[in-house]
Amino acid sequence: MDWASSFNELWHSTGLYGFLDGGLGRAIMILVGLLLIWLAVRKKFEPLLLLPIGFGGILANIPVAGIAEPGGFLYHIYEFGVATGVFPLLIFMGVGAMTDFGPLLANPKTALLGAAAQFGIFTTLIGALWISDLLPVIDFSLQDAAAIGIIGGADGPTAIFLSSKLAPDLMGSIAVAAYSYMALVPIIQPPIMKALASEDEMRIEMKQLRHVSKTEKIVFPLMVLGICLLLIPDATPLIGALMFGNLVKECGVTDRLSKAAQNELINIVTILLGLTVGSKLAADQFLTFETLGILILGLVAFSIGTATGVLLARLMNRLSREKINPLIGAAGVSAVPMAARVVNRVGLEKNPHNFLLMHAMGPNVAGVIGSAVAAGVLLAICG
């Protein structure tokens, strides 16, 4: 028996050898995974997703194991649930079952604020193509730019769904950027809101919303799906899953299905989705100039979406007798319900009697629909 050869093979099969043999990038990405876990646990930034994403990133960068490579268990889960777009759609189904469209139905004009917030998506698409032309180290195709732009919608499942279709090689970077900026909503949005709205505008108190009937809540998801399938069929997978989940909740005769969608289904899929997204944080895919560009462009997209929502709300006040607090325009990005909570907090800082949470939920849920529609448009144009 050749003991030297056996020990040499054993040494080459260890993780320590893998790190010493050009594994610096893997070590860096493991530290990135630990950072995401720290943000989830210590700072409570989107813990339900940042924790599994961070852990999946660690698993993907373990030398030799090949957990995220063909044959590895994360690879098989990714191929089944993410590459096919199944996991994001199931997440949307659960989100629909947890969403109350009542505030939007009670004040329909706030849907415009959700639409305005999507402006950041298309601006960033153009910006990504411009940067690609300007910097030779970055090469974004039209499909890449579209997938990057969707970060501005602040909707993780939509970003994953679109990037899995248009730019699967960038999905890890796009998903991390999307969920990171969603987690940083309480830090990013308030300075933009305060810079674009006056003190008097931020003190505006809004009237109590009217009661929305059960019939309206049942008809709404069917109506939205009908409009979508006629005008933007490419968006119907996302919109259909969202509206089905909401209909199951609002119809009142399928409580078991509603509770399953809100709990068991979305929890299981969230775990698997987070781990498989993290599996795309392999060093050779993430440590690139393109990733830096995605992070910068994602921040720009999110900031523009916030700003356009506030500015449109100010414009609406010029054209309407019934004033709205422009802060609720910032909730048009679809980070539900965190953006609405941030709006409510800033409103209370300016006026202790200014409870904006339910008013902000209108543009907030409109933003969910808007980002899904924007994804459908981009898929139709660039797919």
From TrEMBL:
<feature type="transmembrane region" description="Helical">
    <location>
        <begin position="324"/>
        <end position="343"/>
    </location>
</feature>
<dbReference type="GO" id="GO:0006814">
    <property type="term" value="P:sodium ion transport"/>
</dbReference>
<dbReference type="Pfam" id="PF03977">
    <property type="entry name" value="OAD_beta"/>
</dbReference>
<keyword id="KW-1133">Transmembrane helix</keyword>
<keyword id="KW-0406">Ion transport</keyword>
<dbReference type="GO" id="GO:0016829">
    <property type="term" value="F:lyase activity"/>
</dbReference>
<keyword id="KW-0472">Membrane</keyword>
<feature type="transmembrane region" description="Helical">
    <location>
        <begin position="48"/>
        <end position="68"/>
    </location>
</feature>
<feature type="transmembrane region" description="Helical">
    <location>
        <begin position="111"/>
        <end position="131"/>
    </location>
</feature>
<keyword id="KW-0812">Transmembrane</keyword>
<feature type="transmembrane region" description="Helical">
    <location>
        <begin position="23"/>
        <end position="41"/>
    </location>
</feature>
<dbReference type="GO" id="GO:0005886">
    <property type="term" value="C:plasma membrane"/>
</dbReference>
<feature type="transmembrane region" description="Helical">
    <location>
        <begin position="218"/>
        <end position="245"/>
    </location>
</feature>
<feature type="transmembrane region" description="Helical">
    <location>
        <begin position="80"/>
        <end position="99"/>
    </location>
</feature>
<protein>
    <submittedName>
        <fullName>Oxaloacetate decarboxylase beta chain</fullName>
        <ecNumber>4.1.1.70</ecNumber>
    </submittedName>
</protein>
<feature type="transmembrane region" description="Helical">
    <location>
        <begin position="174"/>
        <end position="197"/>
    </location>
</feature>
<keyword id="KW-0915">Sodium</keyword>
<dbReference type="InterPro" id="IPR005661">
    <property type="entry name" value="OadB_MmdB"/>
</dbReference>
<keyword id="KW-0813">Transport</keyword>
<keyword id="KW-0739">Sodium transport</keyword>
<keyword id="KW-1278">Translocase</keyword>
<keyword id="KW-0456">Lyase</keyword>
<feature type="transmembrane region" description="Helical">
    <location>
        <begin position="292"/>
        <end position="312"/>
    </location>
</feature>
<feature type="transmembrane region" description="Helical">
    <location>
        <begin position="265"/>
        <end position="283"/>
    </location>
</feature>
<feature type="transmembrane region" description="Helical">
    <location>
        <begin position="355"/>
        <end position="381"/>
    </location>
</feature>
<keyword id="KW-1003">Cell membrane</keyword>
